[in-house]
Each structure stands twice: as C-alpha cells, then as structure tokens.
Design goal:
Chain B is of the alpha/beta class. In chain B, 46% of the residues lie in helices and 13% in strands. Chain C is 32% helix and 22% strand. At the A-C interface, helix 1 of A face loops of C.
Chain lengths: 326, 633, 322
C-alpha cells in the first residue's frame, strides 16, 4: 500500500514540476523582451535601456538560465510569486485572497452536479428504453450543450434583471455584514454562478452514470442477485455500488475542466475568484499575476486529483488488495 | 416451410432481420440533420445576406426589421450577417482543432498501444501531464503569451485537447489487441502495417469517430469561451465574440438581448447538440450494449392471461417439481421462438436429475423458467409448473419473486462472474441467508455454509477476485442452499472449470444432496459426464424431451436415435478406440421446427412416418420413456 | 526416420506482471525446462489444466513467445537466435488455430477474404489464390465453396466458423499447426467433424493439439504430453498414457474424468515458482526426496517417486518407478 502512495507522490511531483517549468518557460519564449512582461504596459514604451538593465538585475534575469531556474524554484518553494505589476503587491497575497471563493464555487457546483447527475443517470439506466429515459437523456444533452456562459447570461436575465431575486456582482455585499446575514448574502450571490457551473458539468456526469449502470445491469452478478431472491432495491444497490467507479473516475478527470469553466463563470458574474483574476491579468497584461494564478490553479487541481486517487481504493477492493495468495 | 437438408454443411437461407429502432439511431439522424443545416448556412453565408460581418451596414442599435433580420449592434453591423459569417469561424476552428487533436491522439494511441513498453509509458506520462492542467486557463495563458490568430488558436486548442482522445483510444487499442482475430493475424506473420490497417483500425474506428465529435465540441466551446472573454481573434467575428460585445454593451439590461444574445447562444447550443447526438450514435455503433431495451418494453404475459390448463393436481409431497405441457416462447421481430414446446417432467424430493441437450435446445430457458427469470422477450405461454406445492404459472411476478432463493434457487451459467466484486464472500452469502433469518443469524449461517461447501473459514473475508474459479463456484452453491430450498437448478455448473475442479464440484453436489435432502436439476450439454452422476436423465432436443429414464439405463441402453447418435459422437476414454461420428446437419430453427418428429432430418434411423407424425412419449421400458416412433407400441 | 518439425530443448518461460497498482512484481513460470519434439505426420496432444502452460507451449512453438531459457527449433533453425523479421517469415510456414470460433474471425471480412488472408500475407500471386481457397473450403467440407465465399462469420454456425478457421490453416500449406482447444466451444455433435478434419490434415505436417480433454486427446493424437504447473510430467503414446498412466497427476486427471474417485482437495491457485516437485502437497505418496529437488523427465531411470515415461521410436516400454 505504501508503494502506491510513493508512486502517486512521484507522479504528481513530476506534473507539478512540469507546471513550474511551463511557467518559467513561457515568458522567456514569448515574442518581445522579457522585461515587457514585468512592467505595467503603460510604461513599456517610455522605458529606457538603462531602466531595463536595472529591472533585469533586480529580477536576476541577467544570470545564466540554469541559475535563474534554480532561483525560480527556490522562490516557489518559499511561496514567493513575484510582485504584481498592476497592483504592486505580492502576487501571493492577491491570490490567497481570491482562492477561497473559487474553492467555494467549484466545490458547491461539483457536489451538486455529481449528486443530481448520478441520481438522474442511474434512474435513466434503470428505466432505459422508456419514454422517460429518452426525454431525460435529451434534456441533459441539451443542457450539456449550452455554453456555460450562455447559461449564466440567461440566468442573470431571468433571475436578476427580470425577477430581481439575486444580485449579480461580487461575492459579498459592499456594506459590512456579519453572522447569519453574511451567510445569507454570500449564498444569494453564490447561487447563480454555482447553478451555471453545475449546468456545465451535469450533462457529463449523467452521460457517464447512465451507461455505467446499464453496463453493470448486464453483468452476471446482477442476475445472481435476482436469483437469490433479493428485492429490486437490493439488486439495484448491488449494481450501483459498482457503477459508482467510472462515475467517480469521470468526476475526477473533469476537475480540470470545471476549474476552466469557473474561470469563465466568474467573469460573467464578476465573482472575485481566481478565474476572474486570471482573466483580469490577461487583459491588463499583468504577467506575474497571470503566471502566479495559473500555477495556483494547477496546483489546486492536482491536489484534488491526488486526494481522490488516494481514496480510490476505498471504492474498489480489487485495487485495495490485488491478488494476494490465499 | 424449410426442411433441413441432409448434406453435411449448408448455409441457412436467411431473411434480413428487421432493423430495430435504437436511441442512437434516432438521435444520430436528428443530430446529423442539425449539423447539415448549420454547415450549409455557414457555407452559403454570402448568399444569405448581403452584408459583411464587419461592414457598417446601417444605423447602430436598430431592432430587427426586414432589412436587418436581427437588427444591428452598437456600431451598426448587421447581426444576422455576423451570425452566419460567425458560423464559419466557430465551425472552422472547432473542426480543425478537433482534426488536429484526433490525428495526434490516434497516432499516440496506436504507438503506445501497439509498441507498449517504454514508448507506452513515456507517452502516457505526456498524456497525464496534459490532462492534469485545467484546459481553459492553460489556453488563456498560452494564448496570452503566444498571441492569437486563426492558426495559432487552432494550434493552441488542439495542443490542449489531444490528450483525452489519446487516452480513450489507447484503451481501445489495447482491448482490440487481445481479440483473437488480431492474434491469429500476428501468428500468421502479418506485417505491422497490415495488422494496423486491416485489423486494428477498423475496430477502433467507431470510437475514434465518437472522440472526434467530442473533441469538436470541446474545441468549439473553448473557442467560444475565449472569444467571449474578448481574447479571440480580433479580425474575425465568431459567435463567442458576438456574445462578448453583447455583454460588454449591457445587452442584458436592454431589450437587445433577444436578438443579440439569444441567437448566437442558440447557434452554439445547436451545434454542440448536433455533434453530441451524432457522437452518441457513433458510440452505440461501436458498442451495441448501450442500446438495451430500445423500442417498447413489453411486459411479460403471465398466467393472468394464460391461466393454468385444467385444475391443478393435488400436490404430491414427494414431488418437488411437476411440469405439465409447458410452453415458453420468445417474441422476436422475426417470429416466435418456441424454446420450450410442450415439456412435461417431474423431479422427486431429494433426487438428482440431469437435463442434457445441446446449445439452442431450450434447456437454459427451461432452467430460467423455474425461478421466474426468463429473459425478455420470453414468456410462459402455456402449461403448468408446480414447485413444492406452489403453482408458479398462476402467480403474479411479485409472488414468484418470493419463491426465489427460498423454494427454488438458481446456480446460473458462468457462475464465475456471479459474484459482485465489491463485496466480501461472507457478506454476499449472508445476504442470501437473510431472506429467512435475522441479520445476526444470517452471518452465522454464512460461516456455516462456507464450511459446508468445503472452503476454508479464512475465505469468508475474501473478495471474489481473490478466489479461483472452483472456489467461486462453491460460493455460488452456498448462496443457493442458504435457505434450504426444495429445488436447486444448476445451469451448466461445470463449464469453464478444469477436469479436476469439475470432479470436485460434482462431489460437492452429491454430498449436499445427501445431507440436505435437496433436489437438484443439473442442466448441461455434457451427456457422458452428467450420465455418470445423476439419478435420472432427461434428454432434450429442439424444445422437447426425447428421452427420460434412470441415468444408468439411458446411457447403457439408449432408446432414442438422438441419444444414441450423441453417445457415438464423442470419443471414449476407455475401451477400444472406435470411430466417432458427427451428427449431420444443424439443430432446427425453433421458429419453424420441422414437421413430424423434430429430429428426423438428421436421424440415421428415420423412416416415412417420421416426417408426418409427431411422436408422443412412449414407454420403452418401465420408467424409461422415449419420443421416437420406433418405440411406438 | 520421421522428420522432426519442431523441437523444444529445456524451454523455460516466465511471465512478469505488475500486481494492480501496488507496484510489486509477480513472476509466474509458465514453462519449466520442457523438452519434446514433434515430427512430420505426427499429432501431439498437450494436456493439462488451465494455467498449466500448455497454451504457452503452443505459442512458443510458433515463435510468438520467446523462451527465457532453452531452445526452440523449427525445421532445424533455432528460433531464439533469429531476428524478428526472420521469425515472421517462418510464421508463414506455421498456423495457429484458436479456441473461440466466435472471436477468431474478423467480423467484417467475408469467408473468401478470411481464407485468402494467409495467402496474401505470404505474397502468393493473386491468380493462384482463388483456386487454393476453393480447394481448402472443399477439404473442410464447406461446399459448394463458391456459395460460402461471400458469407460473413455471423451468418455461420459455430461449427462452420471453426471449419473456416481450419480452411485458413490448410490453405497456406504450413508445416506446423498448433490448435488451441479447437473443439471445446462446440457442441458435442459437431466436435466429431472437426476432429475428423484434424486427422485428415496430418499428412506433411506436424500438429500440436492443446486440450484439457483426455478422451479427445486419446482419440486424435499419436502421443500425449501431460503438463502440470509448467513441467512436463508424462510423455508417451496416447493409448499407453491413458490405459496405464505412470504419473500421479495423470492418474488424477483420468480418475476425475471417470468420476471414479474424489480428487485431492483444491489447494487454490498454483504456488509461485521455485519449489521442489510441484506436486508436493497435492500428491498422496509424498516422500522425503520430494522436498529436495524437482524430478526430471527420465527415459529409463527412475527418479524420486515419480516415474516419467518416454517411448522410444518403436516400442512402448514403460519404466516403472516404485
């Protein structure tokens, strides 16, 4: 068992390293001078050669590449992600402010999507071929096909503009609020973005859950369970237990996509998460923030995947205890 | 009416089967229709509108009119023109990126799957790496640094989405490599090229098509998201960028949303739906198992419509199973398959009865009829079945369910897979025992049973994958006897097991029969093996019982030509090595059985009457019946 | 003197695999020092339980698996010293018939294409192909051949499909044919027909017939080789092995087939390699020598308590152990 953990750590470590390397390489590969990416764009034109030299020295960019890379890695470990060109604050601080909101949004949506998608998918599988199955499947496929930002816009249209139930800006009210009222206000601002993001994922989960259960229902152990005299519900539970495996795997693979979707949704709703930060920094050409945010996003996704991989054996005994000699 | 020819081998004339309507078929056609319309509109853009997408066509912010079908935007561009020309951009980028992704993905999949080893490991690491990064942020970052233009966008998107098809297709390649026809080709020394082109690619094609379509969807979504964020190609208007501008100009709060936001959004949705539907039909094409129950689901016709024929005879306590004139038919599009066509038999309490016949004779159907588990679209259409005093044929499906596991239990075919891989042995056995006991007692009973079937107690906490085939079979038997049923129906319990394991399982069944006084109906195709073991032997052919008597007698003095020919068709282990003779012809089509005696087309002893007269069961000797005209008194 | 077509000399083959995601490596020995030979016109049956290595032996004979130790000679050339390309060329003089007639034929190829495939691979000139294909079909009694050419596998019965597989084996005129359980998935009434085909095929070639069914082996084969846990435990003329088995394992197989006696308790999957006599613990007359070393196949001497029998060319002398 420990071997498995070690292998996972090494695997993820490698990916992490790759992410860091990508971050390091990109600005150096991009057209133009590296210093362009470190200063506020407005000043790009007005800077003198001498000033560039000083910036290079300050960031250690006049050193040979391997040295730079070493410093860069050391900086990452320290948690030093450079200074934002726009805000003149450490990137780390900015990112940490925004991270919780993204986690809240992504977490809520994922839970909702998995719960609803799995339940609906399983129900469809059990009643496959009937009219209710076909209509459910078409509906989910339809929702899955709508671009998440389109869903977001429509939700805003109906619930905010016309019905006025939910505000469409920010995560917390501008006026200071406390306690229960704060929770309520946060929830009000969370609902629409969460629903949009859920809609983006729902179809995928459903479209994995349904065939997974259909497949399990054809297995011999289901026939055996029936032959044993178990009730329909008990039989169903047998099959669903195993059908959860591919669903979980899918949910995990999908985490990356969800975070991507969050980026867009946060922008639509002006939700102050990392996604929106990424977007803002692209527009503002605040490259340190851009790199830092991307790195943190990647790390978050990797961490979630790592935890999930770690917990997978709980679901599948074949992985937990592969063929041991009796 | 077709008669079987007696030539050694014939090809059966076949009517083309009626094609069933499947979910995939319906969706696929709908999707294709949508896509055709969209592509046509994109291609014909200049014909549909006389304005360019970025041409100042009129006054700004106009509502829809005859002149401008969707009105104009804040600069005066015609929105309808933007819609149809935007289609070109969105669709082109989507398709090109998907093509790129599929080309890379398929190549990687073939290389990794076929070459294996280090190549595979290295490629899969690259796949994992790419999949680990969130798509959109990665595209954003890369695009931010490398700029945006049509080809750069296609490249960036393709470089991000190739990994998913690669992973999925690699699994498929690995699966196909195990197919026997691929192995056969390799064994013949076929070149790699031939194996890939003729054997592997065709079997991977449906999935590759499905992946292409999926990638196209992802690509279109990514492009739309990019453009919506204002990061698309500034030279070209796509649906996403239309939405960007709409949002930037607060079309949501004005009434302009109707013609500025909804049309491009719907266009995107329609495209994705179209691809998704087509993709689903490709997936179904590759894996027919997804269809399942397409078309109307028929309810099984039960005794409510086909009430028991005649009054039920008073139950004889010494008889555990009493079947009279049973008919079980399958209702298929090509006609009714008469799998069980007038069978009567009895099984005494505590007796071991063998039912032998070849594939397609209906024995499995008969076995499944007893616990009421005939698969769709089959149903009992006549006759009575009395199980330990319960009249099965007069019960509703729910009532039959209560007999399962308690009065009659089934050891199904390929019991090897009959265990849920996720639960321990004890749990699964206890679950069966819990039907007639409290949960605590059930667990104790499970342990008892484990010992009874000859497994060591340590196995109780094992998972199915940790057991050998023979052990799994014992577990299934334990589940079957958990509630002391009156009858155990074992459907081919010995298939797939080694000779030694078969012998052990047979020993076990005999032991259990003695100790528990349970009757066992052993269904098999192996006449010599079963004949050595059971008390009574029933031989089945084409839905009918052709011979019935004490096992030793039937084997020593077979009274039906089929039995005789069957015994001669197999080599003997002992004694002089004699010639074995195959039985000519093929088993009959149960939709149109032959006239007269069903076996006559293949019978070596047939004479004139055999073609006209359908034999009854005649008593050839006391207690030994045969359905052959030769035995007619 | 019979021409030897294929010969094994102390062939050992192991399989390494990862156990699930744990990462630990497991080694399973499929063949352990196996030596045997098959001559032209001869049918040798490989008998044993599943997992015993008989299918592996068949594959090694065809050059599809490379032995870890020992040599495999085909028509005198040592397969282990040949390069991949040369081995591939040799494969065209051999043929592999697989067990499952429902899987071994490409579902999208017609019978005609299927039977032509071996000729296409061997680069036989096109104009000669049709004739040979029809001839092969006639030999396997799929007549009229012309009618079968356009059929697809799913339109044929199991028995007919297996005949197509045999037609493929005949059309290329291979010198070695390995048939892996060719009748086990067919109904009894059809098996006889296929067994008859095997009989008729023997002229000019060597046939290795893998099966778990002793009765079939006795009927069809000239000699029987019994394999247990990768080792060859008994080898002799078919009748001799069946009528008077020497090795306890062979005895157990026969007894089981006849339901004469209860076989020893199932000890579970085979123990991983590296032990003295593999049967130790499963065999009744266990003796102290059994723990020390593995018994070897001996012709005239006896070793330990397991006597091994090899018939020489003419006679059928058994050498008894104690």
């Amino acid at each position: 068992m420990t071997w498995r953990i070690v292998r996972l750590v090494v695997q993820y470590g490698l990916v992490l390293f790759a992410a860091a390397a990508l971050n390091f390489a990109l600005p150096r590969l991009a057209p133009g001078d590296v210093t362009d990416y470190l200063i506020p764009p407005e000043q790009a034109g007005a800077i003198t050669a001498e000033q560039r030299e000083r910036i290079l020295a300050r960031y250690g960019l006049d050193e040979p590449l391997p040295v730079q890379f070493r410093e860069y890695l050391a900086g990452l470990v320290r948690g030093d992600l450079l200074i934002s060109a726009r805000y003149s604050r450490p990137v780390t601080d900015i990112v940490l402010e925004r991270l919780p909101w993204t986690l809240l949004l992504v977490g809520t949506s994922t839970l909702l999507a998995v719960a609803v998608g799995t339940a609906a998918g399983f129900r469809s599988a059990w009643k496959r071929g009937r009219a209710t199955d076909v209509s459910t499947m078409s509906t989910f496929m339809l929702i899955d096909s709508m671009p998440p930002f389109f869903v977001g816009l429509l939700l805003i249209l109906v619930f905010s503009v016309h019905l006025g139930w939910f505000p469409i800006f920010g995560a917390v009210p501008t006026l200071p609020t406390e306690g229960v009222e704060l929770v309520v206000e946060v929830a009000r601002r969370l609902i629409l973005p969460a629903l949009s993001l859920t809609a983006a994922m729902l179809g995928t989960i459903y479209l994995v859950a349904r065939p997974a259960l259909v497949s399990e229902l054809r297995e011999d152990y289901v026939l055996m369970a029936q032959a044993k005299g178990l009730t329909k519900r008990q039989v169903r539970r047998h099959a669903e237990r195993n059908a959860l495996l591919p669903v979980t795997t899918m949910a995990l693979i999908n985490l990356g996509t969800v975070v991507g979707g969050a980026t867009v949704i946060e922008t639509v709703f002006s939700y102050p998460g990392l996604g929106r930060l990424l977007y803002e920094s692209v527009l503002a050409r605040d490259y340190p923030v851009l790199q830092g945010t991307f790195f943190v996003l990647a790390v978050t996704v990797l961490a979630a995947n790592f935890v999930a991989d770690l917990l997978y054996p709980l679901l599948d005994p074949r992985v937990r205890r592969p063929f041991a000699s009796p | 009416m077709t008669t079987q020819e007696t030539a050694p081998q014939t090809v059966e004339p076949r009517r083309p089967p009626r094609r069933e309507r499947t979910t995939g078929g319906v969706l696929g056609s709908a999707g294709a229709a949508i896509l055709v319309m969209l592509f046509a509109a994109a291609a014909a853009a200049p014909a549909l509108t006389r304005y360019g997408p970025q041409e100042r066509a009129g006054l700004p912010n106009r509502r829809p009119s005859a002149e401008h079908l969707l009105g104009t935007n804040d600069v005066g561009h015609d929105l309808f023109a933007q819609l149809v020309f935007g289609a070109r951009v969105s669709l082109t980028i989507g398709l090109l990126a998907a093509l790129f992704a599929l080309a890379v993905g398929l190549t990687v999949a073939l290389l990794a799957g076929y070459l294996g080893g280090t190549v595979d490991a290295a490629l899969m690491r690259a796949v994992d790496l790419t999949l680990a990064f969130p798509f959109i942020p990665l595209v954003l970052v890369v695009a931010a640094f490398l700029g945006r233009g049509l080809f750069m966008t296609v490249f960036v998107i393709g470089a991000v989405i190739w990994a998913q098809p690669a992973r999925v297709l690699r699994s498929q390649v690995l699966k196909v490599l195990k197919y026997e026809h691929v192995q056969a080709a390799q064994a013949m020394g076929a070149s790699t090229l031939r194996i890939l082109a003729v054997h592997i690619l065709p079997r991977t094609a449906p999935l590759a098509a499905a992946q292409f379509v999926r990638s196209a969807n992802v690509a279109i979504m990514i492009e739309a998201s990019l453009s919506f964020l204002g990061l698309g190609d500034p030279q070209r208007i796509s649906w996403g960028s239309m939405l960007f501008f709409a949002n930037a100009h607060n079309a949501i709060v004005t009434e302009a949303w109707r013609w500025w936001i909804v049309p491009p959004g719907l266009a995107l949705t329609a495209t994705v739906v179209g691809f998704a539907f087509v993709g689903y039909s490709f997936e179904e094409w590759g894996d027919r198992r997804l269809t399942g129950g397409s078309g109307s689901v028929r309810r099984r016709r039960w005794a409510a419509e086909h009430a028991a024929r005649g009054p039920a005879a008073p139950a004889d306590p010494q008889v555990v199973l009493d079947i009279r004139d049973l008919h079980v038919h399958y209702d298929t599009p090509d006609g009714a398959v008469r799998a069980v066509d007038g069978i009567s038999l009895t099984v005494g309490r505590g007796r071991l009865v063998g039912l032998v016949g070849e594939s397609g004779c209906g024995k499995t159907t008969l076995a499944m009829a007893l616990p009421g588990l005939i698969p769709h679209p089959g149903a009992i259409v006549g006759g009575t079945v009395v199980l330990d005093g319960h009249q099965l044929t007069a019960m509703r499906p729910g009532e039959v369910g209560r007999l399962r596991g308690r009065v009659v239990s089934l050891v199904p075919q390929s019991a090897m897979n009959a265990l849920n891989p996720a639960y321990t042995v004890r749990r699964q056995i206890a679950e069966a025992a819990a039907l007639t006991r409290e949960p605590d007692d059930a667990a104790a009973r499970a342990d008892e049973l484990i010992e009874l079937v000859g497994l060591s107690a340590a196995k109780a906490t094992a998972y199915p994958h940790e057991l050998s085939g023979g052990m799994k079979q014992r577990v299934v038997i334990a589940m079957a006897i958990a509630n002391e049923p009156a009858l155990v129906v074992a459907d081919e319990p010995l298939t797939g097991l080694d000779v030694l394991t078969q012998a052990r399982i047979v020993r076990l069944l005999l032991e259990l029969q003695e100790r528990l006084d349970v009757a066992i109906l052993l269904v098999s195709h192996d006449l010599p093996l079963v004949g050595q073991v059971v008390d009574d032997l029933l031989v089945m052919y084409a839905g009918r019982i052709v011979e019935d008597g004490p096992a030793k007698e039937v084997v020593a003095d077979p009274r039906h030509p089929y039995t005789r020919q069957l015994l001669k068709a197999r080599p003997q282990l002992r004694g002089a090595d004699r010639d074995i003779a195959p039985i000519p012809g093929l088993p009959p089509d149960l939709r149109r059985p032959p006239t007269g005696c069903r076996f006559h087309p293949r019978c070596a002893e047939a004479f004139d009457d055999c073609q006209r007269v359908d034999p009854d069961e005649y008593e050839a000797k006391p207690g030994h019946c045969s359905a052959c005209l030769l035995e007619r008194p | 003197m019979i021409d030897t077509v294929v010969e094994f000399r102390h062939v050992t083959k192991k399989f390494r695999s990862r156990q699930g995601l744990l990462g630990g490596r497991v080694e399973a020995t499929a063949l352990r020092g196996v030596s045997l030979s098959v001559g032209e016109g001869e049918i040798l049956a490989l008998v044993g339980e599943s997992g015993a290595g008989k299918s592996t032996a068949g594959r090694v004979a065809l050059g599809l698996e490379r032995p870890d130790d020992g040599q495999v000679l085909f028509e005198g050339s040592d397969l282990t010293t040949l390069g991949a390309r040369q081995r591939r060329a040799l494969r065209r003089r051999t043929h592999f018939i697989l067990q499952d007639p429902y899987q071994s034929l490409h579902p999208a190829m017609t019978v005609g294409r299927l039977v032509t495939e071996p000729l296409a691979i061997a680069d036989v000139p096109r104009r000669r192909r049709r004739e040979r294909v029809e001839q092969a079909l006639e030999e396997v009694r799929l007549t009229p051949a012309a009618e079968f050419l356009a059929r697809y596998p799913h339109q044929l019965s199991g028995g007919q499909r297996q005949r197509v597989a045999f037609a493929r084996a005949l059309v290329g005129e291979p010198r070695l044919v390995v048939a892996d359980e060719p009748v086990s998935m067919l109904d009894v009434s059809l098996q006889a027909g296929i067994l008859e085909l095997i009989e008729r095929m023997r002229a000019g070639r060597a046939i290795i017939f893998v099966t778990h069914d002793l009765a079939v082996a006795r009927h069809v084969a000239d000699r029987i080789a019994v394999i247990y846990a990768g080792s060859l435990v008994e080898l002799g003329n078919a009748e001799d092995v069946v009528d008077g088995p020497l090795h306890p394992y062979t005895g157990a197989l026969l007894a089981a087939a006849e339901q004469l006696a209860a076989p020893p308790e199932d000890p579970g999957p085979f123990p991983p390699g590296g032990q003295p006599c593999q049967l130790y613990g499963r065999c009744d007359p266990g003796r102290p020598e059994c723990v020390d070393a593995e018994p070897t196949l001996v012709e005239t001497r006896r070793a330990h308590h397991c006597a091994w029998h090899v018939a020489d060319g003419g006679g059928s002398d058994h050498e008894q152990g104690d």
